[in-house]
């Protein structure tokens, strides 16, 4: 048997590898702890001396212990009121690190013609730069309100809504699939936390990267060791001749 669920750090169910990347048209990535190695909100809080308090709320939300994700995010952002906007650059420059294998996986997906989407409860101050850096096609993220060079502790409402939560991630994925003229069964969703579950349950292929228990119970593929590109061990990037 070419593939086995006994491969260290890589597990799957509900699929029969090898899959064909050409069968999919869209791939959606979560940002924090998936595409990058950190939780950006926690690192912002660290620069304000509030990481312990904020990180505890983040962890509870990602485990699914907090059911009102939107209010949880509002509460965490409120704790950052007064933060100098310049510290956002410090977080990006000094703490944001692309997770291993992310660039390889994205390159393979783009070469196969997939639309690469970033959907996150994080913020445009980071996603705008990651979009350019990684060549992503589309983004849905939250916008921090800044007044006189400091965070107000609030988010700026957008035409699509006030907060990108799990349901907005699913809705954005469905929107991009519709633009491509395909169903959600032709989409791949990659994430690690509870707020990724709506898009994961909707997508044709769901991938948990170093994921929380609540995610591991749901997804098709779990990557516990190595980089995001381990997904390619289960997928043919080119059609066989």
From TrEMBL:
Organism of origin: Achromobacter spanius
Enzyme nomenclature, EC number: 3.1.3.3
Gene Ontology molecular function: L-phosphoserine phosphatase activity; magnesium ion binding
Name of the protein in question: Phosphoserine phosphatase
InterPro entries registered for this protein in UniProt: HAD-like_SerB (IPR050582), HAD-like_sf (IPR036412), HAD_sf (IPR023214), PSP (IPR004469)
NCBIfam families: HAD-SF-IB, serB
Keyword Transmembrane: no
Enzyme class: hydrolase
UniProt keyword annotation of Cell cycle present: no
A GO-annotated cellular component: cytoplasm
Cofactor(s) named in the record: Mg(2+)
Pathway: Amino-acid biosynthesis; L-serine biosynthesis; L-serine from 3-phospho-D-glycerate: step 3/3
UniProt-listed PANTHER family: PHOSPHOSERINE PHOSPHATASE (PTHR43344)
Keywords recorded for this protein, A-Z: Amino-acid biosynthesis, Hydrolase, Magnesium, Metal-binding, Serine biosynthesis
GO biological process: L-serine biosynthetic process
């Amino acid at each position: 048997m070419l593939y086995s669920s006994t491969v260290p750090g890589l597990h799957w169910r509900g699929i029969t590898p090898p899959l064909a990347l050409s069968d999919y048209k869209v791939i959606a990535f979560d940002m924090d702890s998936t595409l990058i190695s950190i939780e950006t909100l926690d690192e912002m809080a660290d620069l304000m001396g509030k990481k312990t308090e904020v990180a505890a709320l983040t962890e509870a939300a990602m485990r699914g212990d907090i059911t009102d994700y939107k209010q949880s995010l509002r509460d965490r952002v409120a704790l950052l009121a007064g933060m100098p906007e310049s510290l956002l650059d410090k977080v990006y420059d000094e703490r944001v690190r692309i997770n291993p294998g992310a660039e390889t996986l994205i390159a393979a997906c783009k070469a196969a013609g997939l639309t690469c989407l970033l959907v996150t409860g994080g913020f445009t101050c980071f996603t705008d730069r990651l979009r350019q850096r990684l060549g992503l096609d589309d983004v849905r993220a939250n916008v921090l309100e800044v007044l006189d060079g400091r965070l107000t502790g609030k988010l700026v409402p957008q035409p699509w809504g006030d907060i990108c939560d799990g349901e907005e991630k699913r809705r954005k994925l469905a929107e991009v699939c519709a633009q491509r003229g395909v169903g959600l069964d032709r989409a791949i969703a990659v994430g690690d936390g509870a707020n990724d579950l709506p898009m994961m349950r909707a997508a044709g292929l769901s991938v948990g990267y170093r994921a929380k228990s609540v995610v591991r119970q749901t997804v098709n593929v779990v990557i516990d060791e190595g980089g995001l590109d381990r997904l390619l061990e289960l997928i043919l990037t080119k059609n066989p001749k």
